[in-house]
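Section: Multi-chain targets

For targets with more than one molecule, the full set of components is provided together so that the structure can be written out for the assembly as a whole rather than chain by chain. Components appear in the order listed by the source. The example entry contains two components.
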Amino acid sequence: MTDAGRLIPRDRTAHPDPYDPGYKTSVLRSPNQALLSMESTPTEEWGPTFGHDQLGPLDNNLILNWTKGEAPAVGERILVHGHVLDELGKPVPHTLVEVWQANAGGRYRHHKDTYFAPLDPNFGGCGRTITDENGYYQFMTIKPGAYPWPNRGNDWRPAHIHYSIFGHSFGQRLISQMYFEGDPLMRYCPIFHTVKDRGQLDSLVAPLDMTMSRPLDYLTYKFDIVLRGRRQTMFENKPEGL
Amino acid sequence: MVQPLTRLRETPSQTAGPYVHIGLMPTYAGNPGSVEKEVGTSPITEAAKGERIEITGTVSDGTGWVLRDAMIESWQADAEGLYAGQEGADPGVPGFCRFGAHAETGLWTLSTIKPGTVKLPDGRVQAPHIALWIVARGINIGLMTRIYFEDEEEANAADPVLMRIEQRPRVETLLAKKTGDGAYRFDIRLQGEGETVFLDL
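Its structure, encoded as tokens over all components, is:
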């Protein structure tokens, strides 16, 4: 990054409200006080960078990476791909995209997950990749299963993959979840519905992408991600600005 | 009619959920070897210049209960106030770290160097601080805050972010308390009494 540039202020209406009683855990974990808003500073305008030297050859293949390629995970084989863009539509190249998910039965490889669907000995559920010069990324995985969770009496999470994206600055940091086109559980999920804007909800749902599916091998879902953008700097840094 | 605005909207945030660590801190989650090189294991290398410090604290909810399942990320400048990637920055300070609380005590620890003051383009100066980003089950969008240091009184008094806090007693929630030589304490309260100031920058 040579020209940091001010970040476009975050449009909080694009996001969930921190307090959403339908999602019970948010009740005690959401601040009561308003956030302190200010223009970004170098602290938010710079961020960590990660290179390919940090990645292993199977990091973007969740079907094979847990067994180091020895044996494939069980489940519906899918490719997930898309672009990371900013609000101005510019690609975000060379940025780290990390994903994690449950296995085909909806079970996470985590000691706190006690759901009785079994672990898959050949599936870990952790992957990552770096976008190319066009902001494009892809990874192979198995489609995660739905699972129950203790919220209201009978709440089930739709199938989803968790995403973590860095962008080029700490102020762009974003964690979200990708859902799958047509999953009826989305209608009932209080976490999905912490997002109130219909268009924004749609942006969390990956369409089936037959064009990029490979015959006799895997189906493909497409998921694009938008991060905060940066303003042009032509009139920046003038002393009369606050 | 007007021309259409062809802007995209930011992808909406979703909670990181209870299992965030299997994806982002696999060794901490009990899955070592998920990836060969984990990111953010330390904000500094041995070669880093500057005063070594250790900050310890907790994250608690609206009842005062200490969270065990949060993931915290920190981002800071080097001892001269430069961020990794900026010209002349200390190569020994990648500046980024991920950490979580101890499963029993709920305490987290950040071992790093004390950052320098950071210059803004307009000439103002930010007091030494470490940016934090907190995600967890129940947190719908990552919470941004900062650690400042109580022993930087002069710099804190001129810090643009701290100066913007109208209710002056709330400034205290962003100051790490010195507990010993190079040791600080910083507790984060998500809600209620003594609620930490969270930022939108």
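The helical segments of chain B are 20-24, 153-157, 160-163.
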